[in-house]
Design goal:
Layout: E1 3-8, H1 13-24, E2 28-33, H2 39-42, H3 52-68, H4 75-78, H5 84-96, H6 100-113, H7 121-131, H8 135-142, H9 145-161, E3 168-171, E4 174-177, H10 182-190
Parallel strand pairs: 1-2
Antiparallel strand pairs: 1-3, 3-4
Helix pairs in contact: 5-6, 5-8, 6-7, 7-8
């Protein structure tokens, strides 16, 4: 099966759902965390917490979607914020050391299934312990300028492929935005000979 790039962020409930669906389909995924947006996008995107209409829809929609996979009361977790670059720096470090997929699933589950705050270092350390990854490496990555610079560098890729939100899946320069595009993407990859 062909390689698919997945742009994600642990903050996004849709990112969680999209990644889960893609993994269940057995897709061959390379992940790129989206923590920093190209400045030209900032003026067009509104934070859901600042837009009451968008926020109320987000709660409504996520309650339905998460109930389908057996998760209740997701609206309690949507408002929990963290220093997302630090959280994603821990993931980058885990990924470089062969624990990226395990860390990702545990981090998403911690936030969306278990209602835990990923901004809490103890939660990140607990994820590392659960997957067998050195928690001191993850903790030092969270304060590393090298990892932060790497996260910032992904804005170039976002510009190149015109990525504006998560989850976005990229296959042979074709974009598939949203958790509800997984079946279309899967068919495209499967039928590509």
């Amino acid at each position: 099966m062909g390689k698919v790039i997945c742009f994600f962020n642990f903050r996004s409930p849709y990112g969680y759902l999209g990644v889960l669906k893609a993994i269940k389909k057995g897709m061959n995924l390379d992940f790129i965390p989206v923590c920093y947006l190209p400045k030209e996008l900032l003026k067009f995107l509104s934070d859901a917490s600042e837009n009451e209409y968008k926020r109320s829809y987000l709660f409504e929609d996520c309650e339905r979607l998460f109930e389908e996979i057996g998760i209740k009361n997701v609206s309690q977790t949507i408002s929990k914020e963290a220093n997302w670059p630090k959280v994603h720096a821990a993931w980058l470090c885990a990924n470089e050391n062969g624990f990226g997929d395990s860390f990702m699933i545990e981090a998403f589950n911690s936030r969306w299934k278990n209602n835990l705050d990923l901004g809490n270092i103890e939660v990140i350390e607990g994820i590392c312990e659960k997957i067998g990854f050195d928690k001191s490496l993850a903790a030092s990555a969270m304060d590393s300028e090298i990892y932060n610079s790497q996260l910032k560098s992904y804005t170039k890729i976002m510009r190149e492929y015109k990525i504006f939100g998560v989850p976005t899946f990229l296959y042979k320069n074709e974009r598939y935005w949203g958790q509800d595009r997984i079946n279309s993407l899967y068919e495209r990859v499967l039928n590509d000979k």
